[in-house]
Structure formats: C-alpha cells, structure tokens
TrEMBL record:
The gene is dapL. The keyword S-adenosyl-L-methionine does not apply. InterPro entries: Aminotransferase_I/II_large, DapL/ALD1, PyrdxlP-dep_Trfase, PyrdxlP-dep_Trfase_major, PyrdxlP-dep_Trfase_small. It is an enzyme of class 2 (transferase). Pfam families: Aminotran_1_2 (PF00155). This is LL-diaminopimelate aminotransferase. Substrate binds at residues 15, 42, 109, 132, 188, 293, 389. CDD domains: AAT_like. The modification N6-(pyridoxal phosphate)lysine is found at residue 250. It comes from Candidatus Merdicola faecigallinarum. SUPFAM superfamilies: PLP-dependent transferases.
C-alpha cells in the first residue's frame, strides 16, 4: 500500500493570495467600472533589460548551430557566470568567495526549500515572525515540526522570533537555541535591515552555538544606506556559519526567466550524530548534481549580461525606478497619517493598520473604499497581525494614483 508523507497533512492551506484574488474578482464583478490598483504581489513590472534580452537572443542563435550547440551544462552553472558572480558580487566587496562555492539554480525559492535535504530533520528551526512562508512550509513538509496549533497560528517545535515595531523588527536571540536560523535581509515582508553590527551579533551567536544561518539576500540590490551588509560574508567569520541565497529575480527582472544562486563556503561544516565535521559544500554539490540538471545556457548568458557595463547601468535604472516608487509610497502614507516602516532599503513598505481593525479588515476597506490592493500582514505569521504590506514593484503611474487615493481617503 502506498504511504504518503503525512507531514503534508499538517500543512495549512495557504489562502493568502487565493483569498486576495477571490476578493478582487468579487469586487470587480460588483463594480465593473472601478479601476483596481494592485500593490500586493511581489512580482516586478519593468521588462527585462536590453543587455540581457540581446544576450539571450544571441545564445538562442548559437545553440541552433552545430558548433554553438549546448546540451546538458554543468549542474553548478557555467564558469563564465560563476566567475562574474564571484567578481561583481563578492571580490568587489572585498569578500573571498571561490567559484566552486557558487551553485546556480532556477530560483532562490527552490534553494531555500531544497537546502533542507542536506540537514538533519532533528534540527531545531528558528524563523522570524512575520516571515517569507517558504522557510516555514518546507520545514513542515520535511517533518521538522509538530502539529499546527490553531489558536496560536503556529507549529509545535518551531522557534518563532517576533519582529514588530516594539523591537524595531529586529529578531532577538531566542530562549531555546536553534540549529537552523533563517534570516531574510533586507526583509520580506517588513522591509527592514540589520546593520553590520547587528548582523555580526548573529554570526557570533551562530558560532558559539554551532548553528547554521540560512541567509536570504534576494533583495540586497535595493539597499541604499551605508553600513548595511549586502552579503552576510561581509561579516568576519560568516563563512563558517552561513549559507547565502541570491536571485536574479528582483535584481534583473528574471522572475519569469528563473535564475538564482546559492553560496556554500568550504569553511562551513555540519556535524554527524557522532559530532564529526562534514563540509556542507560537498553535500550540497552532491544533492545539486543528483536532483538538478543545470540552468539553461540561454538563461545563464542573459544573467551574465547584467554584469556588463551597459547591463549594470540598465538594472540600476530599474532599481532606482522601484525605489522611487517606494519613496512615494512611504512619504504618501506618512502624509496620510500612517505609521510606516521599510521602503528605504527594500521594495516593501510595511504599515501599521489603524487601531481596532485587523489586517484583513484593512484589506477589505482599502479595496472597497479606494480600489487599492495590498497584502494583509497576518498572512505572513501571527506577529504580522495589525500590519499591511505594499510593494514598490508597480508602475510609477499606478503607484502615484494609489497613493493619491489613499491620501484622500477617510476610512469608513
Ligand atoms: N526569497 C524571498 C525573500 C522572496 O521574497 C522571494 C520572492 O518573492 C524569493 C526568495 C524567490 O526568489 P526566486 O524568484 O529566485 O525563486
């Protein structure tokens, strides 16, 4: 008899984006004349930059010729791209990362989920609350949690680190020591960052406790302030305790094309039950080669092109465009009297909903009274209740329109 992975039965259906879609559809049916502005989902709107598009066209032509054909590539990624990543993302920041510590993939989402394959299911996991749901759900599927507790909205066995206005959205060291710690910086959904000093404390904490930091820096390109680390490896000793996830999705508009990478330094060790040290780089390499057949040649040529002089200029223009939206949203919401966080080093703006209403009630009012869609904070975890996320990934025109509507809004 075929047995299932019963951990899936513990999963809570993610109603967040499907509920949002249903609510929009129902509103549109009732008010077909009303224009809705969507600042909810974190997908980009700017087209892929010209340099990358041209490089991909060229690669397509190349593979149609006998001498330019590319079949299966190296699972870890082509050298031409790994070299560029090492140079631009690490060496230029004074970080010593080697090419064989970089693993190309088809998404940071997959990597954040798949990394659990090389880690024991006995590990104790810590996540921030609110959180990018992938870290939590993949650990539930793997069996690193107990049952879901309906009343609290949490899973048994997971260490939740609340991040709210009270602690400035900076996670505090938990009472119980975790083995795996997920940190997403700049943060989705709160848009906050840690300074170098704050992140250094986490590196030290992980060292002292032999914990592993899973550092998601999918939004590092949006950092505008000084003293905010773009990579965890800017912190001394981090190579011994951290895996870093990066993505071309938000950096270069590759959400649909799919390209990302994970950095697993050679210095990073895990332990067997007998406390023998094992290189995580070796395990991840084995896992990657067994379960993944490489990112397409065309995609990797496209990603490589963003490191050209023209490519860098073009992607910086797009980032600037989104960050101007972020500023418009931040300032506009502040003028409208909201308490606002994030949006300075991240494309996400996290606002406090007015006293006395829930995140979902605020969602309904914003949709019905002004026709603007965002994401209720409670969808990212229990400590997200009372907050709301807007993204800067919309078009400038729509962002301006949405903010004007909110500024003229008197909540009923
Ligand atoms: N990590 C975070 C924190 C994200 O918010 C997202 C996408 O929204 C991802 C990873 C996914 O990246 P990718 O498109 O590379 O899978």
């Amino acid at each position: 008899m075929i047995k299932i992975n019963e951990n899936f039965l513990k999963m809570q259906d993610s109603y967040l984006f499907s509920t949002i879609a249903k609510k929009i559809a129902s509103y549109q049916q009732k008010h077909p004349e009303k224009e809705i502005i969507k600042l909810g989902i974190g997908d980009v709107t700017r087209p892929i930059v010209k340099s990358a598009v041209e490089a991909m066209h060229k690669a397509i032509d190349e593979i149609g010729t006998p001498q330019g054909f590319h079949g299966y590539g190296p699972e870890q990624g082509y050298d031409f791209l790994r070299k560029k990543i090492v140079e631009f993302e690490y060496q230029n920041r004074g970080i010593d990362i080697k090419e064989d510590e970089i693993f190309l993939s088809d998404g940071a989402k997959c990597d954040c989920g798949n990394i659990g394959d090389i880690l024991s299911i006995k590990n104790k996991v810590a996540i921030t609350d609110p959180v990018y749901p992938v870290y939590l759900d993949t650990n539930v599927m793997a069996g690193r949690t107990g049952a879901y507790k309906e009343k609290e909205g949490t899973y048994e066995g997971i260490i939740y680190m609340p991040c709210t206005a009270e602690n400035n959205f900076v996670p505090e060291f938990p009472k119980e020591v975790p083995d795996m710690i997920y940190l997403c910086l700049p943060n989705n959904p709160t848009g906050t960052i840690l300074t170098k000093e704050e992140l250094a404390k986490w590196v030290q904490y992980a060292k002292e406790n032999k914990s592993l930091i899973l550092f998601d820096s999918a939004y590092e390109v949006f950092i505008t302030e000084e003293n905010v680390p773009h990579s965890i490896y800017e912190i001394e000793g981090a190579k011994e305790v951290a895996i870093e996830f990066r993505s071309f999705s938000k950096t270069a508009g590759f959400t649909g094309v799919r390209c990302a990478y994970t950095v697993v330094p050679k210095e990073l060790k895990g332990y067997t039950e007998n406390e023998e040290e094992v290189e995580l780089n070796k395990l991840w390499n084995r896992r990657h080669c067994t379960k993944f057949n490489g990112v397409s040649y065309i995609t990797q040529r496209g990603a490589e092109a963003i490191y050209s002089e023209e490519g860098q200029k073009e992607i910086k223009e797009n980032i600037k465009y989104y960050m101007e939206n972020a500023k418009l949203i931040r300032n506009g919401l502040q003028e409208a009297g909201f308490e606002v966080y994030g949006g300075k080093n991240a494309p996400y703006i996290w606002l406090k909903v007015p006293e006395g209403i829930t995140s979902w009630e605020f969602f309904d009012k914003l949709l019905e009274e002004v026709g603007v869609v965002g994401t209720p904070g409670s969808g990212f975890g229990p400590s997200g209740e009372g907050y709301f996320r807007l993204t800067a990934f919309g078009t400038k025109e729509n962002t301006i329109k949405a903010i004007e509507r909110i500024k003229n809004w008197r909540i009923k």
